[in-house]
Every structure is written in C-alpha cells, then in structure tokens.
Amino acid sequence: MANEPKDPKKTDEEPEKTEKEHGDSLPEEGPFPKPGCMTNLPDRRTTVFLLCFLPLQVFVIPTLLGMLAAQNKLSIVDANYICYVIGMVTVFLLGWNFLKEGFRRYLCHPLGNAIFIVGSYLALNALDILVQLLMQEFMVFDNLNNDAVAEMAVSSTGKTIAMAVFMAPLAEEPLFRGGIFGALYTKSRPAAYLVSAALFSLYHIWSYALLDVGYLWYFFLYLPSGLILALAYERTDSIWTPIFLHMLVNFVAMSAI
Q1: Which of 65, 67, 128, 131 could be bridged to 79 by S-S, CB 3.0 to 4.6 A?
Q2: How confident is the model at residue 78, as a pLDDT?
Q3: pLDDT tens digit string along 54-72?
Q4: Residue 41: CB atoms within 10 Å
C-alpha cells in the first residue's frame, strides 16, 4: 500500500502546537510578570526565620535598647542605630539567597524597574496628599515618628541619614514584604497586601499609640506606603524594587528636614 502523502502545512504547525500545550518554558513577554505569577519569594525555611525574627526587631530589641537609653547608658540615636544594624545584618544572614536572587532579577530589567520606582513614588505622593486631606480632621497630633527622626537628625545627622535611607529599607522590606507578604502571597493575594500593609503601618505607630490611642489615626497615613511597596515587589518580581523605592521615599523626606 502506498504511503499517504504528508501535509507540509500540518507538519509545520505540529511542533508549535505541542510547544504551546506543554511549554511552560515559553518566555514571558515584557519585563514584569503578570499579577499572581511572581516567583522571587523566600523559601519556607527563610520565611520561618524572617517571621520569627520580626517580633524581635519590632518589639524586643527596641524595648531593650530603649530601656538602656532611658537609663542614659545609650543615646536615643545610638539605640536606634544599633537596632537597625542588628536588623539589617540579621536579615542579610537569614535571607542571603533570597536577596541575592532578587538582585539578579532586578538587574535583568534595571531601566524598567527604575521607571517603575519613579512612577510608584509619584503615585505614593498623590495618595499621601489624598489621605492627609481626608484625615486632617482626625489627625489632631503631630506625627511623632517624623518628629523623632527630625530630633535625631539634629543630634547626629550622619547616623540618622544612614538609618533612614539605608538601614531601615534593608531591614524592613525583607521582613514585611519578603516575610509577611511572601508567606501569604501563594495563599491569598488580597490577604498578602492587606496584612503586610496593615502590620507595616502599625510598626510605625504602635509605640506612640500606647501613649494616646488617638494616634491610631496615623495608621491610615502609613497604609498607602505599605500597599505601594507591596505592589512594587509583586509587579517587578524583585525584593530590591521596594527596597530602592523605600530608600527614595526616606531620602526625599530626610532632605526636607
């Protein structure tokens, strides 16, 4: 029996069809992943370490150093400086592979990530202005967090700039975005955004809210920052994008002091 003639059109199209059916190796278009598809997440062991260290960095270490400052054994600047040095070094030790992979991904699209950072900063400024306009009747107190930073800057400008612009983003972003956001991301994106942003806001105000519960209104002032930083992390698939964005925000704020 004679062989059936092959259809050249069918032969040419078959590999393409097979690749689409089985080809999760097909490259993704554009520099940024689709929402819900980020992969620069800490592994389970790193996540556990980061989440275990988080309460130490937020509550235990500042409280112990604050007690030393209250006894005049440390200045307020030195107490905060030591706290951020401990946080930054510990985060790097716990999450080195996670941070290294995130930096590699950032360098894959440096220009696109830089543009995203600038756009996110402008969006954050607009949201901050909107929140302040909406909340101005409730925010009857000065922003004690900003006042504390300003006082430290007068006392020791160099250490305060180092803390605000470099150490704080390097310590906080792997904990709040990498640890909290990353842990919840694969289970629920909305929960990852809301919980990480809410805890980030509380982190900035909890010690002042203990003095006066009215200061809790400032929770809403820091909430946009937590949401935008989480968005920067997800959309660029690199933990270094929110780190650099956080540095930019704090640098501009310090320049205005």
Answers
A1: 65
A2: 96
A3: 999 999 999 999 999 999 9
A4: 20
